[in-house]
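Researcher: We plan to redesign the surface later, but first we want a full-length starting point. Tokens attached.
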């Protein structure tokens, strides 16, 4: 029979073992809970391309869903996905960017990975080979932005680099400086080339780009047929007589962030929290229909739309603004319910089709902390940690497993 001292020792050993098992179990639970967790997801960790979406979970893992014809989801297939799938990117990812059938993931150590369509040399690896899995294309990167067919990156020394298709001056360099051409004869740059120094924020759309320097100066270049650059005059015209800006030109001061819509308009957030917008206003994209070029329905110069804003996002022809109190506002074209309402305040004719639009910002949600916008859909994360999407779902880009082509009420997206 064991003595009292021996029994105490046995009990102590048993209790110690239980504690160790409990600690291991808690550690495993915490580790597992980070996989797929969205509670700390930032706007930089959410990216909506034309028809696909990328996000980064709490553990730095990438998930993707939506259109996948060119392998832009990175899951080694070309099948569209209506629910999130995990993408194997080496390293802990801190930012993602998505263009038209193109994806980027930036790791904490500065390594940049790309996958998807590379027909216009937009992956930046000099290969012109589309890929269905992530491939490392650059090092020492601190920020990335994807246009439709080109890309921008800020390196660790704050210098801005550009690559991809240079149609309509999208890269801010001359065609003669580019080293390749695509099948349509457009000049392309196959690897990153330096464009500017001292850059703090970047964004890009269809054949146009914008950069904010460390002193808050906003520069723009590229295509300007819809006034998307926010400048009165450009220095060049293309073969069709359409205007574009061949080199970066100043737009405005005191800017903290810029957001390029994929096609028609852009937004700028000032250091004081004021939101400015410009570009084509037919469908309400700039937040007003009272513009400075009424004949063409274009807002040429940046126009103040809202105050007390802390974040912005722009889709193809709709916009998002997140106010300091966590309220999310949307406006613009609403043909797929992407602004989160069923209709809108007016209708716009595209051919024989009438679509609903909203020029006055409307409240979509409260208690929001992160936002993103794609071609015709919107994505946001609220303080409850839930990721929600709304709008076009033709290719499953809402990520909710639904076969509905469009949804005007936000639905939760769950990472698996």
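Model: Full-length starting sequence:
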């Amino acid at each position: 029979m064991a003595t009292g001292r021996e029994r105490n020792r046995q009990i102590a050993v048993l209790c110690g073992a239980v504690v160790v098992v409990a600690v291991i179990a808690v550690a495993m639970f915490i580790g597992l809970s980070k996989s797929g967790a969205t509670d700390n997801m930032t706007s930089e960790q959410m990216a909506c391309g034309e028809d696909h979406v990328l996000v980064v979970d709490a553990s730095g893992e990438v998930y993707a869903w939506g259109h996948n014809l060119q392998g832009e989801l990175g899951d080694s297939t070309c099948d569209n996905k209506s629910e999130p799938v995990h993408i194997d990117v080496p390293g802990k990812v801190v930012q993602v960017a998505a263009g038209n059938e193109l994806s980027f993931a930036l790791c904490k150590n500065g390594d940049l990975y790309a996958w998807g369509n590379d027909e216009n040399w937009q992956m930046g690896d000099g290969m012109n080979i589309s890929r269905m899995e992530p491939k490392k294309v650059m090092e020492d990167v601190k920020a990335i932005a994807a246009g439709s067919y080109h890309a921008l990156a800020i390196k660790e020394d704050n210098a801005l680099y550009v690559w991809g298709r240079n149609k309509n001056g999208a890269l801010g360099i001359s065609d003669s400086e580019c080293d390749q051409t695509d099948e349509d004869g457009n000049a392309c740059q196959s690897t990153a080339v330096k464009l500017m120094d001292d850059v703090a924020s970047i964004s890009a759309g269809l054949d146009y780009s914008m950069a904010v320097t460390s002193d808050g100066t906003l520069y723009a270049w590229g295509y300007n047929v819809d006034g998307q650059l926010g400048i009165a005059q450009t220095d060049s015209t293309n073969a069709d007589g359409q205007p574009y800006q061949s080199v970066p030109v100043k737009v405005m001061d005191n800017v903290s962030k810029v957001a390029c819509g994929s096609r028609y308009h852009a937004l700028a957030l000032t250091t004081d929290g004021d939101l400015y917008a410009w570009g084509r206003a037919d469908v309400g994209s700039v937040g007003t229909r009272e513009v400075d070029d009424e004949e063409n329905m274009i807002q040429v110069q940046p126009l103040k739309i809202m105050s007390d804003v802390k974040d912005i996002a722009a889709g193809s022809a709709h916009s998002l603004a997140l106010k300091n109190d966590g309220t999310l506002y949307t406006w613009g074209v609403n043909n797929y319910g992407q602004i989160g309402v069923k209709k809108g305040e007016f209708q716009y004719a595209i051919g024989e089709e009438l679509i609903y639009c909203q020029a006055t910002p409307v409240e979509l949600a409260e208690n929001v902390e992160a936002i993103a916008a794609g071609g015709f859909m919107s994505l946001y994360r609220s303080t409850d940690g839930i990721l929600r999407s709304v709008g076009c779902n033709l290719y499953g880009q809402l990520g909710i497993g639904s076969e509905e082509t469009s949804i005007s009420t936000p639905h939760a997206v769950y990472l698996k």
